[in-house]
Amino acid sequence: MEPVSVINGAAWDQQTFKVLYDEYFVLVSRYCYSFTGDYEAARDIAAELFANLWRQRAGIRVNTSMKNYLLVAARRSCKKHTDKLQRTFTISDDHLDQALSTHTPDAALAGKESREKLHQLLSLLDPVKKEIIDLKLLGLTNKEIAHILHITPKKVEYQLNTAIRLLQEEIKTRRLTVHDCEAGLIIGTLVLMLPA
Amino acid sequence: MNEKILFRYIYELSNAAEREMVTAWLQQSERNRDILVALVKRKQQLEGAADQQAADTHWERVQAAMNEEVPAVKNIRPWWLYSAAAALVTVSMGIGWLWQHQHTPAAQPVKLSTTGKNKQVITLPDGTRVWLQYNSSLEYDARAFNNSNRQVILNGAAFFNVNGSPDKPFRVSTHQTTVTVLGTSFSIHAREHEMQEIAVASGKINVQAAQLNINLLPMQRIKYDPVTHALLSDSTSLDRITAVRDNLLVFENDDLPSIARKLSQWYNRDVIIHGTPHRVSFTGSVQDNGIQPVLEGLSFLAGVEYKITADTIILSLKRNHKK
């Protein structure tokens, strides 16, 4: 486990808070996106989170790590946010694609099939596995993920390994079009060349 | 496929054996490649949510929230308490005035210090601005400072922009040296048991130490060893001098141990070097946007691999660079 150091929010001044913000805003936004699927909303939630953190700093005492504290807080506000969203309207996949393409022109350029594949593939998994994969992709260690989700690091490892196995098996049953293969091959080789 | 190996591959942290395993796995089947592509795409998608630029634009909003805040009054006291307090203050000020005119003024020491987590920009009573680097402290006597004696004591590193005042010289004392100026800007790196570094951005300064009395002009820099009194003077570039003010971290022909020492000073964490430090020499500057981005930049520029834990940073040379 991480060493316990008590961080006292009441002692923050604008300078220390800016340092904190600079260190974690990007990570928190990315994590929020994992829930919202909307870049703008994710950044909004993250900014609001930090603003609230400042407003309530007098009562804040962090006795885990700052990273853990922030991500748990982000998770909570995202859940609240998506609950509210679902009550008013549901986001269709179409909508999501639109949001994606308007914010990242690059993503729009990437073939629609690869985006579809991505959606289909990872959406085959249950929400817990999906969340763990997202956290892992954000660069967190198994320990850190375990801490956030209140499970053991072993369980995180197990879930990830199972996820990979399930994906391998699931796709076995999927019919692959020639198109799929081509795109996969091209991107696959590109990725292969990356570390060289 | 083991998740550890796969994700290490995605993060480009694999060693040769691991890379081979992943390559073999990818060649096994089309679907394995699909999984990797899906994961990498998802990673990019997540990372698209925000970058440093987004952080900067959203900071304004957070800052607005910080500024709107009114200092909280915990409980409202009846009005007469305030007037009583005001009366008391007036009386004590009167007494204080009398006292001041009978005795020599007492010192009002002010000490401002930064930790490994924060930097500070200080405006002194005379309008002089001081950019205090990590783990540094600035001390002065507020009463004497206001009268005539503009003197501060520095331990650590700082950039000074001194407000001009011809009849009141500004003095910075460090452990071994004293810098006297009228109205200039300059930087000082003076930590205990270390080479001191003083450089001028504008104007003229005078540096005095045990066996030293030297005037420095813009772009000139001295390195002074307080123990051996060895002096090295050269000229340097303006952005190096103003690095502290401009929030830059500067490296100059630094090898791995030297980079490690600088990082541990800036961020107050133990820096551990793994493996044999090959000869690397790194010159350049990194915008100080927090420890993570700095190390990210360093790892890219200097070919250093890093790992951050709560109180230590582990540096090692990239495996790919080893022959």
Features:
heterodimer; A: 196 residues; mainly alpha; Rna Polymerase Sigma Factor, Chain: A; Arc Repressor Mutant, subunit A; 2 domains; two-stranded antiparallel sheet; 10 helices; 75% helix; B: 323 residues; alpha+beta; Jelly Rolls; Phage tail protein beta-alpha-beta fold; 3 domains; 13-stranded mixed beta sheet; 3-stranded mixed beta sheet; 9 helices; FecR family protein (chain B)
Describe the model.
Chain B: Residues 249-315 form the Protein FecR C-terminal domain. The complex is a heterodimer of chains A (196) and B (323). Helix content of chain A is 75%, strand content 2%. Chain A is an all-alpha fold and 196 residues long. Chain A has two domains: 1-92, Rna Polymerase Sigma Factor, Chain: A (Orthogonal Bundle), CATH 1.10.1740; 110-196, Orthogonal Bundle (Arc Repressor Mutant, subunit A), CATH 1.10.10. In chain A, helix 1 (14-36) runs antiparallel to helix 2 (39-55), helix 1 crosses helix 3 and helix 2 (39-55) crosses helix 3 (66-88). Chain A starts with 6 loop residues before the first strand and ends with a helix. Mean pLDDT of chain A is 75; it is low at 88-111. In chain B, strands 1, 2, 3, 4, 5, 6, 7, 8, 9, 10, 11, 12 and 13 form a 13-stranded mixed beta sheet that branches. In chain B, a hairpin with a 2-residue loop joins strand 10 (205-209) and strand 11 (212-216). The longest helix of chain B is centred in the N-terminal third of the chain and has 24 residues, at 79-102. Chain B folds into three domains: 1-43, no CATH class; 109-241, Jelly Rolls, CATH 2.60.120; 248-321, Phage tail protein beta-alpha-beta fold. In chain B, 35% of the residues lie in helices and 31% in strands. The interface between A and B is large, with 70 and 59 residues.
